[in-house]
From TrEMBL:
Protein name: Cytochrome C
Signal peptide span: 1-20
Matches recorded under Gene3D superfamilies: Cytochrome c-like domain
UniProt keyword Heme present: yes
Ranges of residues in domain Cytochrome c: 21-121
Lineage: Bacteria, Pseudomonadati, Pseudomonadota, Alphaproteobacteria, Hyphomicrobiales
C-alpha cells in the first residue's frame, strides 16, 4: 500500500511543474501584446489601454482610453478566468470590442501571460 501511495505522490509531483505559471514565458508571450498595450511604470495607452493592475479592474475603466461601448458596458471585472476566456477570442467574449487579435489558444501560454500581467500593480510597479 505504501508503494502505491508513494508512486502516486511521485507522479503527481512530476505533473505539477508543468501546471505552474512561468513569468519568463509570460513575458515572451507579452510580445504579442506589446504593439498595442504597455505595462510597467510610465505605461501609456496606445492602440489599446495600458494593462497595469488589470486583475480586479472593471472593463472599460482606464482613464484616458477611448473604449468601445461594448467594452464599457460589458459588466466584466477582470479575473484569471475571465481574462483566459477573453484572450482566447476577444470578439467572442465581448462582441463589438474594437480589439483586433486572433487570440491565444494554448492554456499554458495564457497562464504564463496571466502571471506576467499580475506582477504589475495599478501604479505599474512590480508587486
Amino acid at each position: 500500500m505504501k508503494a502505491i501511495a508513494c508512486a502516486i505522490l511521485i507522479s503527481a509531483t512530476a505533473v505539477l511543474p508543468a501546471l505552474a505559471q512561468d513569468i519568463s514565458a509570460g513575458e515572451r508571450s507579452w510580445n504579442k501584446c506589446r504593439a498595442c498595450h504597455q505595462t510597467g511604470e510610465g505605461a501609456k495607452n496606445l492602440v489599446g489601454p495600458q494593462l497595469n493592475g488589470l486583475f480586479g479592474r472593471h472593463s472599460g475603466s482606464v482613464e484616458g482610453y477611448s473604449y468601445s461601448a461594448a467594452n464599457k458596458n460589458s459588466g466584466i471585472s477582470w479575473d484569471e478566468a475571465t481574462f483566459a476566456e477573453y484572450i482566447k477570442d476577444p470578439k467572442a467574449k465581448i462582441p463589438g470590442t474594437k480589439m483586433i487579435f486572433a487570440g491565444i489558444k494554448n492554456e499554458q501560454e495564457i497562464k504564463d501571460l496571466t502571471a506576467f500581467l499580475k506582477q504589475f500593480g495599478q501604479d505599474g510597479k512590480k508587486l
